[in-house]
Amino acid sequence: MKKCGDCKKEKGAKERVYTFKKCMVKPGAKVDLDAIDTKETYGWTKRRARVQTGRNLERIAELQEQLYVEKKRGLLIVLQAMDTGGKDGTIRTLGKALNPAGTRVATFKKPTDEEQEHHFLWRIIKQLPKAGEVVIFNRSHYEDVGVVRVHDLVPEEEVRARYDEINAFEEKLAQGAADIPEGTHVLKFFLHISKKEQLARFRDRLDDPAKQWKLSENDFKERQHWDEYMEVYSRALSKCSTDDAPWFVVPADNKWMRDLVISQVVVDYLEALSMKPPAPTVDVKDIRKKYFNDVARRPQNPPPPENPPRHRPPRQGFGLR
Ligand code: AMP
Ligand code: MG
To answer: Does the pTM exceed 0.85?
Structure first.
């Protein structure tokens, strides 16, 4: 994306002001996830938060349309969390606002044999947004500096080099290319829940037959490594939060707070881009003239149709009977 000379602001863009600035990891700051309250509400109540989230979703819908018609940039939303942290719930919430025509969700599991044979960013690059698109990553390249360290799947030195590779990769995304001139904007959210909250959510899954399919042996195994996960994520967030691709630590024990923070950050970010609709490809004056000519030609009292339409009862339930 085009930056003006000595400042980090995009040309023509507004000053970016985050309502939840406290959640943003300042570039270069050291994060200690253990010291961050997963229940923080910043004075919001559930009722007010839900109302504001509703407003944010309406605004996201408008802004996404601008992004889509403008077709100059992409938005990549990265979600990382411990199991039950709320990645799926966040996708459902954002999905209420996003037009599916311009949205994709990419989920990253344990790499397949084919993926293992490639560079760790290979499968990530394949899923990047095209111009005008919003893509949500359910897990991401941050697994390649997270879980791989916890289980010692990749040596520490290699992971250390990966932080630099990721920063260079995300910086390049922001710079753009011929097919995406204003670049790919990256917003990264770590949904921060407590170990206790995770246990409560496992309990919900156990007790609710509709959620039992989500249970996995692996979740309990990973839970044993909680402290190591907090450590590797703290390191990744400290090393890889940049102006181009900031990390946000979202207090996620309360789902309403999680939805509020994420929807607000997305609105704040997109608003600051000051997107403009593209210039019309037709002569609007000429089309306007044609329109009014057509209106003037319409008979004021059209004659009744020869075969009046039969009365039909109103449709119910999306027209399904
Ligand atoms: P889930 O999202 O619960 O279906 O679990 C997906 C699993 O895949 C998680 O345990 C992730 O840590 C794991 N996973 C994702 N990416 C990688 C990766 N690059 N290397 C190893 N494991 C991964
Ligand atoms: Mg899981």
So the answer is: yes
